[in-house]
TrEMBL record:
GO terms for molecular function: UTP:glucose-1-phosphate uridylyltransferase activity. Coiled coil: none annotated. Keywords: Nucleotidyltransferase, Transferase. This is UTP--glucose-1-phosphate uridylyltransferase. Belongs to the UDPGP type 2 family. Its EC number is 2.7.7.9. It catalyses: alpha-D-glucose 1-phosphate + UTP + H(+) = UDP-alpha-D-glucose + diphosphate.
């Protein structure tokens, strides 16, 4: 299965500002979050990229893309009616081909010599089906991620056959319905923000969008329909995802990138100095009291 196309969603309320944020990459170069996401996409052989945005945002995304803007096409989601609808805006672009999908508010650091996207595409090609990247996720992070449960595929490290998909479950529901054997207690398979999806996802998304009982259908809703109709896998990527949209998400992402790059020693020294200064202020303040 060849994956030539990618869809990045960035149309949710307040999500339009995140990809334009500036960071410093592992080589010490200033880049936008969008440029880092696009580099991840292009690392696995993708040739065409569609960005799903809100009306009026195209110019700012073009600027944020820098010299990678030539690889982009844009479609708009006119109203914020859900994640499933946002992906369906790219139906004409994907044109029945399998495609890589990433969210516009996550960054990725690989723990392998292959990028996270390349690892995922390789697994999807091997199994010839939709595959979602997942990561072992602590219970306290359940409000931020879709969660899957599944059974391990024999002799395939980190590959699972998906049995359930639930968007941002409560801890009680996760404990009752979404435990995956082999994970540590209190940990679940949380979405990584990256998927390879076959054309089967389109019918599944259209099904949930047409369901009047779902007010704002999500990708998780569509994937739960997909797994009931077709083979659908999850893969525990060798890497880490960083959610830019949560409190301190940008700061944590930048620290993770810096500590993986050429300026690691400098950043560690700055952190130690900062902590020492804060400790000295606290001690002096205690004496004055």
């Amino acid at each position: 299965m060849q994956v030539r196309k990618a869809v990045i969603t960035a149309a949710a309320p307040n999500q339009n500002r995140i990809p334009t944020q500036q960071l410093v990459d592992c080589q010490g170069k200033d880049k936008s979050a969008l440029q880092l996401i696009l580099e991840e996409v292009l690392s696995c052989g993708v040739e065409e990229i569609c960005l799903v945005i809100r009306p009026g945002d195209q110019r700012s995304f073009e600027q944020a893309a820098g010299d990678l803007v030539g690889s982009l096409q844009f479609v708009e989601q006119s109203e914020p009616v859900g994640y499933a609808d946002a992906l369906l805006r790219a139906k004409g672009f994907v044109a029945k081909e399998p495609f890589l999908h990433l969210v516009g508010d996550h960054l990725y650091l690989s723990a392998s010599n292959l990028s996270c996207a390349m690892q995922l595409v390789n697994v999807a090609s091997e199994f010839s089906c939709s595959v979602s990247a997942v990561q072992s996720t602590r219970e306290n992070n359940l409000p931020y991620f879709g969660i899957v449960s599944g059974t391990r595929v024999p002799r395939k490290d980190g590959v699972f056959e998906v049995q359930r998909v639930v968007e941002k479950p409560t801890p009680t529901r996760a404990e009752q319905e979404l435990v995956t054997p082999g994970l540590r207690s209190g940990h679940y398979l949380g979405f990584f923000g990256m998927h390879v999806l076959t054309n089967d996802i389109i019918a599944a998304l259209e099904h949930v969008v047409a369901d009047p009982s779902i007010s704002k259908p999500t990708l998780s809703d569509g994937l739960d329909v997909l797994r009931s109709r077709h083979k659908y896998m999850a893969f525990e990527v060798r890497g880490t995802r960083y959610n830019l949209g949560i409190p301190y998400g940008l700061l944590i992402s930048q620290l993770a990138i810096a500590l993986s790059g050429r300026d690691r020693d400098r950043i560690l020294t700055e952190l130690v100095d900062l902590l020492a200064q804060r400790n000295a202020v606290a001690v002096d303040g205690g004496r004055d009291a």
